[in-house]
């Protein structure tokens, strides 16, 4: 009787272990399909790509793209806001499934994560207040320029000998306000973000000089999630081909920002 009882207990434990192992061996893509939900990260502070609107709702180009991709996968998109300087660590630490937050594809980042095909093209642009008298960022002497922490813009400014101080901010809103308050000589941000600042924040900001460099923007996915990368790329391709992407881009920018 005791032997039979012990046998039943051991059998139960074995079944539990096997079930647990089977569950943990599922891929991220399989979990997304099973749960009918994909969660993605962004800062929520990068208008017009991702931001909190006047009603307190998270909105923007990135959000619409995420929803369109989720629709193709047959699931619901769940946004998660997080600080930019820890967003890759959050992805590799499995706090969310992917980053759809206007992240540029760089060699350094490719060492840690994979990227989809670009879902838009942007560029680093120097902006200053109107009346600055500047024609390019190179004209600054002992310049004080703002960037958002953890961006490629910071790395680019470090290479410029005429920039004395790089001010770092948690969001582009803070960065723009610092320029308006004359705490900086200007700022470097994405071209589309800066161009919309005058209307959105009522600031007399203008682009100065040519792009510092161009960027490809992609969706970041963990290295081992190859099936998820394949499916998200396929969904992205589908919304580009069927016109959904162009509708979203036109809604936010009036142009197709996938065109170089």
From TrEMBL:
<keyword id="KW-0732">Signal</keyword>
<feature type="signal peptide">
    <location>
        <begin position="1"/>
        <end position="22"/>
    </location>
</feature>
<dbReference type="GO" id="GO:0030313">
    <property type="term" value="C:cell envelope"/>
</dbReference>
<dbReference type="InterPro" id="IPR001638">
    <property type="entry name" value="Solute-binding_3/MltF_N"/>
</dbReference>
<dbReference type="InterPro" id="IPR018313">
    <property type="entry name" value="SBP_3_CS"/>
</dbReference>
<feature type="domain" description="Solute-binding protein family 3/N-terminal">
    <location>
        <begin position="37"/>
        <end position="256"/>
    </location>
</feature>
<protein>
    <submittedName>
        <fullName>Polar amino acid transport system substrate-binding protein</fullName>
    </submittedName>
</protein>
<dbReference type="Pfam" id="PF00497">
    <property type="entry name" value="SBP_bac_3"/>
</dbReference>
<comment type="similarity">
    <text>Belongs to the bacterial solute-binding protein 3 family.</text>
</comment>
């Amino acid at each position: 009787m005791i032997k039979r009882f012990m046998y039943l207990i051991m059998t139960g434990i074995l079944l539990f272990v096997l079930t647990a192992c089977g569950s943990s061996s599922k891929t991220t893509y399989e979990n997304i399909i099973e749960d009918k939900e994909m969660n993605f990260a962004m800062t929520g502070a990068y208008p017009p790509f991702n931001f909190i609107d006047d009603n307190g709702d998270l909105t923007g180009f990135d959000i619409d793209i995420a929803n369109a991709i989720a629709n193709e996968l047959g699931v619901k998109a769940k946004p998660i806001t997080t600080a930019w300087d820890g967003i890759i660590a959050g992805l590799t630490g499995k706090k969310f499934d992917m980053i759809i937050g206007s992240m540029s594809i760089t060699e350094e980042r490719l060492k840690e994560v994979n990227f989809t095909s670009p879902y838009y093209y942007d560029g680093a642009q120097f902006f200053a207040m109107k009346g600055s008298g500047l024609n390019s960022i190179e004209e600054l002497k002992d310049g004080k320029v703002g960037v958002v922490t953890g961006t490629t813009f910071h790395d680019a400014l470090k290479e410029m000998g005429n920039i004395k101080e790089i001010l770092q901010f948690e969001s582009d809103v803070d960065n723009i306000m610092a320029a308006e308050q004359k705490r900086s000589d200007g700022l470097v941000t994405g071209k589309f973000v800066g161009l919309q600042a005058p209307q959105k924040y009522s600031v007399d900001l203008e682009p100065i000089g040519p792009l510092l460099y161009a960027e490809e923007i992609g969706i970041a996915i963990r290295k081992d999630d190859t099936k998820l990368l394949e499916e998200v790329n396929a969904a992205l391709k589908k919304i580009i081909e069927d016109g959904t992407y162009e509708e979203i881009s036109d809604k936010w920018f009036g142009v197709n920002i996938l065109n170089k």
